[in-house]
TrEMBL record:
SUPFAM superfamilies: Periplasmic binding protein-like II
Pfam families to which the protein is assigned, alphabetical: SBP_bac_1
Entry-linked Gene3D superfamilies: Periplasmic binding protein-like II
Identification of the protein by name: Multiple sugar transport system substrate-binding protein
InterPro entries: Bact_solute-bd_prot1, SBP, TAT_signal
UniProt keyword annotations, A-Z: Sugar transport, Transport
Amino acid sequence: MSINSPDLSRRAFGRLMATALGGAALTGCTTGGGTPAPDTPLRVMAINHVWSQAIRKRLAEFEERIGRRVSMSLLTSDQLANSYNVKLNASATDIDVMMVRALQEQLLFAHNGWLADLTGRVRGDAAYQWDDFLPATRERSATDGKVLSVPVVTERPALYYRKDLVGGAPPATLDDLMETALRLTDRAGNFFGFVGRGQRSGAVSMWSSFLYSFGGNFTIDGRSGIGRPEAIRAYEYYGGLLERAGPPGATNMSLEQAMPIFAQGKAAFYIDADAIYTNFLDPKISTVRETVGFAPFPAGPAGARPFNIPSWSLGISRFSRLPDAAWEFIRWASGPEMVRGLQAEGIPGARQEVWSDRATLASFPPDLARSMQTGARIGVGIDRPDVLQVGRARDIIGRPLVAGILGQPVAPVAREADAEFADFLVRDNRYREA
C-alpha cells in the first residue's frame, strides 16, 4: 500500500448498538468534562475511499441503533494527515473515530499518545470475534502489545498480465517473469514486458514483496537489513526488470503513471496492489478489459512472500469524550456482518471468514479472487519499515532501486544506503534503545 501506499488512498480502488453500550471499559480515553449531551454527534474522520463511502450510506442504520447522530468527514490523504496533526497536537475533543494507516502512522500516533488502547474491547467481546481477523493484519494492529486499531480494508500485490500474449499459465516464479517480460519487450514498437513503480520512495512498498521473496527484510533484529546479500539481489532483480523490460522514465513513475501504461495495452505484466483491479475493467480507461488476467505474486528464491496489509484501520482518539459510542461504531463497521456485506460488493475485508466464503468473493473476477485468497493466506503483514519516520526511511531505502533502474551498479549504492539507514534507526525513536 501499500496499497498500500499513500497514493492508493487517493485512487482507492479506482471505484473503490445499540447492542449494549457497555463493553469493556476503555481507560484513558477522555479528557474529562463530563458526559456530552445526547445531541452531541459522534465524529468520524476518514479518508475519501470506497469503504468510507459505503459506510456513510449505511449510517442511518447505526444512528438508529445507537440513538446518536454521526458526523462523518471524508478527506483526501493530505487533508486527513494535516487535520490529525493540528487537532491531536492540541488534544482536541472533536474527533472520536479515526481512520488511520496502521503501517504509516500508527507507530507515530502511539508514540504521541493519540490512540486509545482497544485491547480489552476487542479481546473481551466474544461476539466480535477478534481471532477471525487475518493474522497478519491483526498483528499489525498492535503496538507495544496494545491493540490500537482495527483493520477494515486489506490489500496484496497481484500480477496483472495479458492473457492473449502470455498464453497458458502466467509466470509462477520471478525467473519466469523476467524471462517472459524480456521476450515480449519491443521498445521499437513502444511495448514493454513489464511496468511498475520506480519512483524512489513510492516504489518501496511494492518492492517489499520482492525483498521478502529473496529472503531479505528491511530490518533484522532492529538493525538495517538492506545491505545484506538477499536485499542486494532483490534490488538488482527489480531494478534490472524495469531497466531491461520497462518503459523510459520509470524512475519517475508512481501508481498514477505506471497503471495507465498497462491499462492502455502497452505492457505485458504489471505488479501492483490488487485493490486497483477495477481500473483494468473500466471501459472508460482500459483497453485490456477483455484480455487482462490476475495471478498471485511469483515465487523468488525464498518462495512467494507477498505483503498482505491492512491499508486502512479504525482507531479511537484518546481525547474522545464518547469512547463507548466510538467503540460501538468500530464494532458495527468492522463486525462480521458488515465485512461480509462489503466484501460481497468488492471491498476486500480483513476477516478470515470472508476469504473462504464463495458468496463474498463472487464480485471479484475468479482468478483475482484466487490470487487474493493466496495472498491473504501466505502474506507478510508489512510493506514498509516499522519506524516512526516512515517517509524518511522509504526515501533512504529507495535509492538503490533507482540505481538499478538506471543500470548503475547496485551494491555500492546499497552499502551507502545501508549505512545511512543504520544511522537513521539509531536516531529514530522506535530504535533508540536498539
